Amino acid sequence: MTRTHEESFRYDKMVEKALRGVVKQALQEVVDKGIVDDHHFYITFFTDHPGVKVPNYLKERYPGEMTIVLQHQFYDLEVNDEKFTVMLSFNNVPERLVIPLAAITIFADPSVNFALQFQPLTDEEEDEIHFEAEEIELDKNDKEKKKGEVVSLDSFRKKNKDKDKP
Fold first, then answer.
1. Can you spell out the DSSP letters for 46-89?
2. Percent with pLDDT over 90 in the chain
3. Phi, psi of 35 (to 5 degrees)
4. I need a labelling partner for 114 at 20 to 30 A (CA). Which of 21, 35, 38, 91 fits?
5. Where does residue 45 rank: exposed (0-12), middle (13-18), buried (19+ CB within 10 A)?
6. Angle at CA 119, nearest 5°, toward 111 and 124?
7. Whole-structure pTM over 0.85, yes or no?
8. CATH of domain 10-153
9. What are the sequence ranges of the domains in the chain?
């Protein structure tokens, strides 16, 4: 049986599922065993993605994207095939966040200088999913950051300014 163009292998979707599986597995290991050694996660996600549940004041403060840190002060982490939920404290107020795995744009573990970056879709790519796995140089002094702190996404983004220069 020969495949038509519409039935061709969608490697981009296969890769997406595999990479998001890494995120799911890492979170599940924390559920099962807790955080070990110096491991901790920076997770950036779209706050307006369908299924994301965060308090309105956080959506207003971080429109579009938000980064959370899972290190010491998080509770009730639960993971399934579609999403994860976690309790974090913001200004000493505990809040439950619900984050679909598909909403994640960056997953990083600075303790081992590992990161996955999922590229957002552009208007021309509505039906295709593009993302890449890459190592991102992370701040070695991140241990000094507050526990449960929301951090700026700019610290993880590579600067694209040089791309435009001849």
1. ETTSTT-B--HHHHHHSSSEEEEEESSSEEEEEE-SSEEEEEEE
2. 52
3. -75, 130
4. 91
5. buried
6. 175
7. no
8. 2.30.30.220
9. 10-153
